[in-house]
Specification:
Blueprint: E1 4-5, E2 10-12, H1 14-17, H2 33-42, H3 48-51, H4 65-79, E3 82-84, E4 90-99, E5 102-114, E6 123-124, H5 131-144, E7 146-147, E8 151-155, H6 161-167, E9 176-179, E10 185-191, H7 194-204, E11 209-213, H8 215-230, E12 243-250, E13 257-258, E14 262-266, H9 273-280, E15 284-291, H10 293-306, E16 311-316, E17 321-327, H11 331-336, H12 342-345, H13 348-360, E18 368-372, H14 375-383, E19 389-392, H15 398-406, E20 418-419, E21 429-430
Parallel strand pairs: 6-11, 8-12
Antiparallel strand pairs: 1-5, 2-3, 4-5, 4-10, 5-12, 7-21, 8-11, 9-10, 13-20, 14-18, 14-19, 15-17, 16-17, 16-19
Length: 432
């Protein structure tokens, strides 16, 4: 059963650093060089200097971005920039944000969660991981001995009992607040009440946890723990390295959004709607929506109204036309991906990649793609010839994450995009 623990988080002393907005940052994997520079300039104490320290031309095994991060962390702790909370806490966390003109608020809480290798307990991944990012995070773990950012976990709670119990510990208390570069407002409240901790732990004890984001960090936590165990470095079952810091959100939370991840495909020069329809028609029901941005918007609205996974939208840049295509039968996907479950084969992203891009378009070109999430990003790319083919993909739902992860399968890459990302720097978790 999941083992949830309060912990003594390490947090910024705002009397020393100023606004929390100046020292927080998005997670490392969504920060490019331009944003990294901006965060460096915002504050000499921004968490970016720990989470994603800049590489330098003279880096060596003895002096590099990991050792610099560790040095900064030691100095900030010594100077009181960062300080451990006096009491064990869970930390209620909410984010208020806007998507396509609608305002949402997502709520959850930070806690330590006992690490379990995937497939051996009740913590389930839904995405594949890569060796490079795990090696990078392990080097940072070894240097800093901290979780600098949380893993994002989901749990079933249709009546929101867990959140209500956690929020009982923050009545009439003022949160600490930060606003990120996208305008997302984050608020955090420490909950020190032990009765609240006990209630939350009891309610969570029988619930599975599904990793929404932070798969690499979670697996790195397991690898770090195993590394210590192999060298005799664990003090016992309650050693902090046996746990990872996780933000936990109920799967029924009204602010929990999975945004679609659309594909902008290059490597298919000159592809027209007529050619695409010819390839798709044997297995898809085609609707020609029209041409221009208005038709693209209508195609996506039709898909949204349908709410189905078996319908895709396509914009061909060569002629500016938009179509939707609905798969007629499951038979072809059963043939193309027999090693996967029916739930996996039914995903829109699976149909797009296995059938359309690989089986149908692969033989006539060399499809490669970039990922975007917003409707206007897709329409702008088609208008300005930023790709050869734009593909609208329906977002996977919570039910897909739960059923496929519970089956110990991994969803195709970029199947989910949980927006917004969790801020780093709100609370840190020492693992030594």
């Amino acid at each position: 059963m999941p083992d949830i623990r309060p912990f003594r988080g390490v947090r910024y002393d705002l009397t020393r650093v100023g606004a929390l907005s100046d020292v927080a940052a998005p997670p490392y994997d969504v920060i490019g060089p331009e944003l990294q520079d901006r965060l460096y300039k915002t504050s000499p104490y921004n968490i970016i200097r720990l989470e994603l320290n800049k590489e330098q031309a003279d880096d060596s095994p003895e002096s590099n971005r990991y050792t610099r991060a560790a040095k900064e962390l030691r100095e900030w702790t010594r100077e009181g920039i960062l300080a451990e909370d006096p009491h064990t806490s869970i930390y209620v966390y909410e984010q208020t944000f806007e998507v396509e003109g609608q305002t949402h608020t997502r709520k959850g809480f930070f806690a330590r969660v006992r690490l379990e290798p995937f497939g051996e307990g009740m913590i389930y991944p839904h995405e594949q991981t890569l060796s490079g990012p795990k090696a990078d995070r392990l080097a940072l773990f070894n240097a800093t001995k901290f979780n600098l950012s949380p893993v994002f976990g989901l749990y079933p709670d249709p009546t929101e009992d867990v959140l209500h119990a956690a929020e009982a510990g923050i009545r009439d208390r003022t949160p600490i607040e930060a606003t990120d570069h996208l305008g997302v407002v984050s608020r955090i409240w420490p909950v020190v009440d032990q009765a609240t901790h006990t209630t939350v732990q009891g309610l969570m004890a029988s619930k599975p946890i599904f990793i929404a984001d932070g798969h690499h960090r979670y697996e790195t936590g397991v690898n770090y723990r195993n590394q210590l165990a192999a060298s005799g470095g664990l003090s016992g079952p309650d050693d902090p390295a046996n746990f990872t810091m996780m933000m936990l959100v109920g799967m029924s939370d009204p602010g929990l959004l999975i945004l679609p991840t659309h594909r902008l495909v290059s490597g298919l020069p000159g592809l027209t709607s007529d050619e695409l329809i010819r390839l798709l028609s044997p297995d898809f029901e085609i609707e020609v929506v029209g041409d221009g941005p208005a038709a693209g918007r209508a195609a996506w609205e039709n898909m949204e109204m349908s709410g189905d996974q078996d319908i895709l939208g396509f914009g061909t840049v060569a002629d500016g036309k938009w179509i939707t295509a609905r798969l007629r039968s499951d038979a072809k996907m059963d043939e193309l991906a027999p090693e996967h479950s029916a739930e996996w084969r039914s995903l829109g992203v699976s149909i797009l990649h296995e059938f359309v891009l690989k089986a149908l378009l692969g033989p006539i070109g060399s499809p490669n793609f970039t990922y975007v999430h917003l409707l206007d990003e897709v329409l702008d790319s088609v208008t300005h010839c930023g790709c050869d083919l734009a593909c609208f993909v329906p977002p996977a739902g919570m039910n897909h994450v739960e059923s496929i992860a519970s089956n110990l399968e991994k969803m195709p890459p970029k199947s989910t995009y949980f927006y917004p990302k969790l801020l780093s720097g709100l609370v840190l978790n020492p693992i030594r």
